[in-house]
Backbone:
């Protein structure tokens, strides 16, 4: 017993004994287990109630708070004077603040992004020409997976100060086509065919009503404008599917999409030479 | 009777639908045909039941919304403080469930009805709904129960004004569907709070005697708890 007692009270440096070191390790160990247990339960109970982004933020706050308390409580055991650290930390903080304005700016932008929430994880957006899915919104950067599968890290300051186009912020969106038909074709028949194709498609919404109308009498074609609203989850597949169906069905009904053409009038008769 | 509980092997044919569960290569093979469309799945379990039930019309062609919008062919005018019972048709989907030792799983969902979606409300805050159009009846109408069911809707005008009703929107996750040989049905309520606001909900009771309750998809999928009524806040 006296050996263990002596070992535990053995001074490693200044007044810090082996028992202080062991206790510090124990506190860190317990705090790590506590963080894991709390986060696991948070995930279990809040997974269905909160979004991934909010849950991740709560987990980070909980983890850093517990870890911070643990570190502050073990520092005196390790012979480190907290008041000295706080003063040194304050001075270092000012110096670091000047040196890391961009980082702080990104950090604050991240906080404002989380408060204002113009974008959420999983949504599709365009920021400064970068288009894709929001994979993660971190404290200083936002991760975007572009449509062609690239990983793009955008600093939060850039996201916050740029104009953001969120493609899926609303439950529905509109897309449009311009379908050109020949002047010799029956435009009313073409309108009827396009309207019936839209009616047949389940995702082309009944309301807001689709619009199909002759928009322009162009150089080479009568231009029909087609505007359709669809749920954001499926709008692109509807857009692709319907355009091809319109083209095919119009052709099946003898209505063709014309090539650009010019009618030339010659002043004199043109002699056509035929090669044998 | 098409809907019900079956022990494999089984073979059912009705109208354009065929469902077959047969033993093949020491496993069971589930086959379903519908208007030329086919689906096949292997079932690696011996002791199971097949439940064929009408379910909430939210799953085909793709599940994108929990809401069902039924547009009335003719609008209704309901007097002040009046309570009135009407019947409307709703589209049904057919689900095939597999039930082993306690657990229930959906293996197939299909529909013979043409699907259409609509937006209820404005673009900024409205909701996408499955769309269906129905006549309004004062008696239970005749329906083909492979295609349509009947909703008994009790309209309760809680205002002191005449109110015009053109549609009803439900949260179809809350539907309590019952069926028998001839009818698929559910009972619902619409509490009219103003000319533009109403609350809709379902009642967990059969419309006729000797009706069986359908398995609820949102229970078998363990969806999180949802409110028990839907507020129609963008017009009636």
Residues:
């Amino acid at each position: 017993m006296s050996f263990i007692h002596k070992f535990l009270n053995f001074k490693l440096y200044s007044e810090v004994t082996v028992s202080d070191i062991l206790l510090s390790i124990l506190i860190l160990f317990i705090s790590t287990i506590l963080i894991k247990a709390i986060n696991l339960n948070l995930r279990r109970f809040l997974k269905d109630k909160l979004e991934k982004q909010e849950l991740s933020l709560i987990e980070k706050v909980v983890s850093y708070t517990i870890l911070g308390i643990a570190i502050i409580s073990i520092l005196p055991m390790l012979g480190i004077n907290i008041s000295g650290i706080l003063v040194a930390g304050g001075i270092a903080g000012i110096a670091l603040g000047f040196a890391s304005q961009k980082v702080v700016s990104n950090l604050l932008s991240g906080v404002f992004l989380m408060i204002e929430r113009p974008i959420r994880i999983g949504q599709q957006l365009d920021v400064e020409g970068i288009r894709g899915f929001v994979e993660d919104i971190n404290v200083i950067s936002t991760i975007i997976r572009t449509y062609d599968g690239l990983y793009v890290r955008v600093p939060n300051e850039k996201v916050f100060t740029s104009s953001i186009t969120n493609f899926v912020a609303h439950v529905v969106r509109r897309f449009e086509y311009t379908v050109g038909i020949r002047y010799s074709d029956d435009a009313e028949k073409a309108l009827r065919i396009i309207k019936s194709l839209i009616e047949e498609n389940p995702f082309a919404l009944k309301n807001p009503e689709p619009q199909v109308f002759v928009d322009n009498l162009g150089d080479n074609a009568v231009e029909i404008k087609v505007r359709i609203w669809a749920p954001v989850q499926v709008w692109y597949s509807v857009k692709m599917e319907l355009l091809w169906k319109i083209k095919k069905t119009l052709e099946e009904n003898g209505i063709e999409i014309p090539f650009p053409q010019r009618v030339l009038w010659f002043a004199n008769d043109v002699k056509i030479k035929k090669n044998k | 009777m098409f809907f019900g509980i079956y022990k494999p092997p089984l073979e059912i044919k009705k109208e354009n639908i065929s469902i077959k569960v047969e033993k093949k290569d020491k496993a069971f093979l589930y086959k379903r045909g519908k208007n030329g469309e086919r689906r096949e799945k292997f079932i690696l379990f011996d002791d199971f039941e097949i439940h064929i039930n009408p379910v909430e019309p939210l799953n085909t062609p793709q599940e994108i919304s929990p809401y069902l919008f039924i547009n009335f062919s003719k609008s209704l005018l309901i007097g002040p403080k009046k309570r009135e019972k009407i019947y409307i048709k709703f589209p049904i989907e057919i689900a095939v469930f597999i039930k082993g030792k306690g657990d229930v799983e959906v293996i197939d969902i299909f529909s013979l009805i043409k699907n259409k979606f609509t937006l209820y409300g404005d673009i900024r805050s409205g909701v996408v709904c499955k769309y269906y159009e129905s006549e309004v009846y004062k008696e239970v109408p005749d329906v083909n129960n492979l295609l349509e069911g009947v909703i008994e809707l009790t309209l309760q005008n809680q205002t002191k004004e005449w109110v015009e009703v053109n549609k009803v929107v439900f949260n179809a996750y809350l539907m309590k569907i019952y069926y028998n040989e001839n009818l698929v049905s559910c009972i619902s309520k619409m509490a009219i709070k103003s000319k533009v606001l109403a609350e809709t909900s379902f009642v967990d009771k059969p419309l006729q005697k000797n009706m069986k309750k359908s398995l609820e998809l949102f229970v078998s999928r363990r969806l999180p708890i949802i409110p028990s009524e839907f507020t129609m806040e963008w017009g009636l």
